Amino acid sequence: MAALIDIHPAKHRTRVRRATAESAWSRWLVISIAVGFMGLMFVLPLVVIFQEAFRKGWEGYVEAFDDRATMHAIWLTLQVAAITVPLNTIFGLAAAWCVSRFRFRGKRLLTSLIELPLWVSPVNAGLIYVLLFGAQGFFGPSLKEHGIKIIFALPGIVLSTIFVTFTFVARVLTPQMEAQGQAEEEAAMTLGANGFQMFWRVTIPKIKWGLLYGIILCNARSMGEFGAVSVVSGHIRNKTNTVPLHIEVLYNEYQFVPAFAVASVLTLLALATLILKTLTTTKRGAA
Amino acid sequence: MARTRHVLPGFRLSLGFTITYLSLIVLIPLSMLVWKASTGGWDGVLNTITHARVIASLKLSFTTAFTAALVNGFFGLLTAWALERYSFPGRRVLDAMVDLPFALPTAVAGIALVTLYAPNGWIGAWLAQYDIKAAYAPLGITIALVFVGFPFVVRTLQPVIADLSMELEEAAACLGANRWQTLTRVVFPALLPATLAGMTLAFGRAVGEYGSVVFISGNLPFKTEIAPLLITMRLEEYDYSGAATIGVVMLIASFLILFTADLLAQWNRKRTGH
């Protein structure tokens, strides 16, 4: 990528234009359309979130968090992420390992299936667990007999969140591991390392930045999932309302400052994720 | 099934775990959708999907997602080109921002967009002067879906633009083509498969989108009610098989969209030789 950018560095701007470059005028036009579009679509919504959150000043912002339901929603969301992220990380590592290191029949089908949850509507992601574990669901009657609650409770929220964030770690790691190749791992094995040593001493250091980004992305998505969770949670305040659901409740009750204040926390999390992605991809590029 | 011996360990363990986890979390639950939809029988399925409100919501979901994909195709191509080919101040920030819809929770995007485009919002008030209604109208849904789908087009195109061989463009220039001719006859045909693939992915993501749409759409039956919302309504009415039937329709749509994207990716590989 760097090589391509160097083809037209700003300092080389001479009067004679390269045959493979656009005129300065059309370059300027394309850049301003791109910047204008992203400013309108991406930057403006971010500005609105913080503007609304601080409409009543810093005190109003802090006050928004001084609320039992808000604190409960944050606590619940942290619990959900704490269960979801490790499970999907282990899965992501396993999936990336077998897809990037081995050739086997059905590999393409497997990679497509791993990608599938990304394309399933979040509402469907919630619905399927209601159909499995809900009162009228497949396992509904036997769960009721044993007094186990999955839908409208933490397990259902966790399951649907796992579904929605299923792909992320694997999706980040697989191309990276494929590109890096497996020579180092093979060397470690032939030099007598066992599988465990090879994994911790060779593979993990090789993929750490990608892994970190995958985990952070998975975390941001699990804390922010709305559609799937909204179907399985039942919206019980102080019980099954996660942060995004709580934002909806606040917004619908016209409590705009608290709604945007809580939203601003998730926004900061998203921005941190983007910054981390930029940093880790640079590190990877340098390595 | 695999080659008999590998140097690297963990094939059976990792594949076994992957397939088990995939089955438990994704495949078995998804098969429930088909099972529940079929409990109503063919009549039930037909009754649900020929219901005027269901048809209206599916039509709305697909047309708004399609329009959003077209918009994203245009702006995504320009943005990817600018990010890969030009250097300008803030290029890296812009590049990082492309992933915002990936990282930002949909509900947060939803309330931010409706605040912007509501009749008293910054953009909404300006549009209202021209009698354009964005929020609580199909236009607002399309805007939210443009937001959601944009990264797919840009991220699909970027590596393809980076891999585009300069020699072709140089050859075209040497043979006397001006820059515009080179772009329209050499560069854009090479980028077409990837652009369509990105648009297909954006479309696929947009069809099922829920969180960022429900706030801005207004949710009026027959007018601004998207299909995923109708699923939740059916669930609230305890019409499980109805909800599952609409769910299956959307699932089949996702499969078809993914299949199309895969075909386009193959076409892209053929055309660019990668």
Provide a descriptive summary of the structure in words.
The complex is a heterodimer of chains A (287) and B (274). Chain A has 287 residues and is mainly alpha-helical. Chain A has one domain (58-286): MetI-like fold, CATH 1.10.3720.10. Helix content of chain A is 75%, strand content 0%. Chain A has 14 helices and no strands. Chain A has helices spanning 2-5, 24-53, 57-63, 68-101, 107-119, 122-133, 140-145, 154-164, 168-180, 183-190, 195-224, 227-233, 243-252, 256-286. Chain A is globular. Chain A starts with a helix and ends with a helix. Chain B contains 13 helices and no strands. Chain B is globular, with a radius of gyration of 22 Å. The relative contact order of chain B is 0.14. Chain B has 274 residues and is mainly alpha-helical. Chain B has a single domain (43-272), classed as MetI-like (MetI-like fold). The two termini of chain B are 28 Å apart. At the A-B interface, helix 2, helix 4, helix 5, helix 6 and helix 8 of A face helix 1, helix 3, helix 4, helix 5 and helix 6 of B.
Q: How many alpha or pi helices of chain B?
A: 13
Task: Please describe the biggest sheet of chain B, giving its number of strands, its sense, and whether it closes into a barrel.
Answer: none
In the CATH scheme, what's the topology name of chain B? MetI-like fold
Per the CATH scheme, the topology name of chain A is: MetI-like fold
Let me know the number of strands of chain B.
0
**Mean pLDDT of chain B, as a whole number?**
89
H/E topology pattern of chain A: HHHHHHHHHHHHHH
CATH level-four homologous superfamily name of chain B? MetI-like
CATH architecture of chain B: Orthogonal Bundle
| Quaternary structure state of the chains depicted | heterodimer
Query: What average pLDDT do the residues of chain A reach?
Result: 88
Order of helices and strands of chain B: HHHHHHHHHHHHH
Low-confidence stretches of chain B: none
Shape of chain B: globular
Classified in CATH, the superfamily of chain A is MetI-like
Gross geometry of chain A: globular
How many β strands of chain A by DSSP? 0
* Number of spatially distinct domains of chain A: 1
Quickly give the structural class of chain A: mainly alpha
Radius of gyration of chain A: 24 Å
Low-confidence regions of chain A: 1-5
